[in-house]
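User: Can you help me understand a structure? I only have the sequence.
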Amino acid sequence: MAPLSPADLILNPDGSVYHLALHPHEVAPYILLTGDPGRLAGIQARMDEVSCTRQHREFGTVTGRIGDLRLTVISTGIGTDNIDIVLNELDALVNVDLTTRTQHPHLTRLRILRLGTCGSLDPQFPVDGLIFTRYALGLDGLMGFYARAQEAIDDAVAAFNQGFEPPLTAYGTSCSAELARLTAGYISLKNGITVTASGFYGPQGRNLGRIAPAYPDLLHRLTSFRWDGYAVANLEMETAGILALSRALGHEAGSLSVALANRREGTFSQDVPAAVTHLIDTGLALMADWARTAQ
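Assistant: Let's start by predicting it. Here is the structure, written out as tokens:
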């Protein structure tokens, strides 16, 4: 493999990767991704030791230790465009020699968990409840720019894509199997399919009355979709990109969300800080269990 060019792998003057502004030694093997930079402080406060803090644009990073667990927490901002940056730069930090710009001979597998907020699409996924993503359906288009391996869900997604006019090309992906096995011990988690949209309003079926939606039946089509016994649980803007890119790069990834709204019932959380705190506490417990059991 030829060395990567400065235009492909962009480094800052101090040798850190371009957007995250991190060096390889500042990345832990366990990664928490949270969209909102405001959540970093709450997670950092739970750490027994902090070895790195960094802020560049919307990308904030804290690396530290909670008990025996060394982890890196990164705020990604909103959307799979940012996920494309974060996942590729994280992979470069652990699998590319930034000095020679060549791939390491032995690759590192990261374990990544997204902690995010979402809107649920079914009464069985109540407001303030936690949802673990078994499969994700991406409406954002990101993975159309990458070669990816065939997944079992792909045939079902191809059937889902039929009948949309204008044409809609979704992609499907699944979570880490080793992480999915761990969630069986968490009775508060409901499992389902997460749909990742390319925006917050029209792409998630919202209509503020100024622009007619291209897909007025989008939510109905989504709630009718089933795969492997799972229903569509929630809508958000990052998960499919995280799971699919991680899978393509050889990393293990999952997504844990708290439902702040129920789109079918038109309800919204009455205590967002408490809901987010529950999400963080559960996510950290799940990460600690993952670290204890991972091979």
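Now, to help you interpret it: Residues 108 and 246 are 12 Å apart (CA to CA). Residues 272-293 form the longest helix (22 residues). Let me know which part you'd like to focus on.
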